[in-house]
Write a structure and sequence with these properties.
Elements: H1 7-11, E1 18-23, H2 35-38, E2 43-48, H3 52-61, E3 68-71, E4 80-86, H4 99-102, E5 114-121, E6 136-139, H5 145-150, H6 153-156, E7 161-167, H7 178-187, E8 190-201, E9 220-229, H8 239-253, H9 256-269, H10 281-290
Parallel strand pairs: 1-2, 1-6, 2-3, 6-7
Antiparallel strand pairs: 4-5, 7-9, 8-9
Length: 300
């Protein structure tokens, strides 16, 4: 659903600052999910990109003057690891590409060939002072997502939204898969919200499809997925966190149904606000979306 207005604009002086952390910040050719937040003065970004050339391009772009910082750290669980540099830098990983499996597919092994390996000391997100107070965590680290999460229990305890890439088959040797990431995030108080942009994959050799070499017929290999703080426990969030969560859901994902529920909880927690009236945020939100306030109320 395309939302025809900005919740940040609707909130006016109530609009909160949103602190974003992007691990694997170089999404070449892709628009980051938080671009609508960074387009407003409320967005603050700390990104991690170990590839010097990619990080240099990010710093040179200076899209958000004074509101973003890009660091070279390789984020993980804090252990010393091998980092495998591939011929296409965005496929480099703490895990070695699973070449026998990759060769089964069109146009996959060719972009994941290890050119060199170096020993690195990974850094836990919980040990990086610049990311304290994060609200929105985005991760794209080629199979090492669970390592990042395991190094960030303190930050995850206050994060509101997690946007991560996940894999369904072991494209890298020994990597955790979607089920592992899902179980861990649920144990940290998150629930799955949405898969984004469909599932990505490739065709098995030698078959190709007319859509091109990066298309698939049925075999799904990876996807982007969004997790949110448990929406059955919204009453446990502070009014400030509820506003942040609603803004992220609305501006980044167009998730107006969940954003409305979050605003309803905000009104319930805020003295003097009645969610069923136009001066309540829930009522105003529905007025802007639908032209009227519904007679039904959320069951909370």
């Amino acid at each position: 659903m395309e939302i025809p207005f900005s919740l940040i604009d609707m909130l006016g002086p109530l609009a909160p600052t949103i602190r974003i952390v992007d691990v694997g910040a170089s999404d070449i050719g892709e628009t980051p999910p938080y671009v609508a937040l960074m387009a407003r003065p409320q967005g603050r970004l700390v990104g991690f990109e170990p590839d010097d050339a990619a990080r240099g391009m990010l710093n040179a772009s200076d899209c958000y003057p004074g509101r973003c910082l890009y660091l070279p750290d390789i984020i993980g669980d804090g252990s010393e690891r091998n980092f495998h540099l591939c011929n296409v830098p965005m496929t480099s990983s703490l895990y070695r590409p699973n070449t026998p499996l990759l060769r089964l597919f069109i146009n996959l092994e060719e972009v994941m060939r290890v050119e060199s390996t170096r020993r690195v000391k990974t850094r836990r997100l919980d040990d990086v002072p610049q990311v304290d107070g994060l609200d929105f965590l985005k991760i794209d680290v080629q199979g090492a997502e669970l390592d990042v999460f395991k190094g960030a229990p303190r930050l995850l305890s206050r994060a509101l939204v997690v946007h991560t890439e996940v894999e369904f088959v072991p494209m890298y040797e020994g990597q955790p898969l979607f089920s592992d990431v899902d179980q861990f995030l649920r144990s940290q108080g998150f629930l799955l919200h949405s898969f984004l942009g469909g599932m990505s994959g490739r065709t098995f050799r030698p078959m190709a499809v007319v859509e091109g070499p990066t298309s698939t017929l049925r075999q799904h290999l990876w996807a982007d997925v969004v997790y949110v703080r448990d929406f059955g426990q919204l009453a446990g969030l502070s009014p400030g966190d509820l506003l942040k969560l609603a803004v992220i859901l609305h501006e980044c994902y167009g998730s107006c149904d969940l954003a409305a529920l979050v605003l309803y909880h905000y009104d319930l927690q805020t003295p003097g606000r009645d969610p069923s009236r136009p001066d309540g945020l829930w009522g105003e939100y529905f007025q802007r979306l639908c032209g009227e306030i519904p007679t039904d109320r959320p069951l909370v």
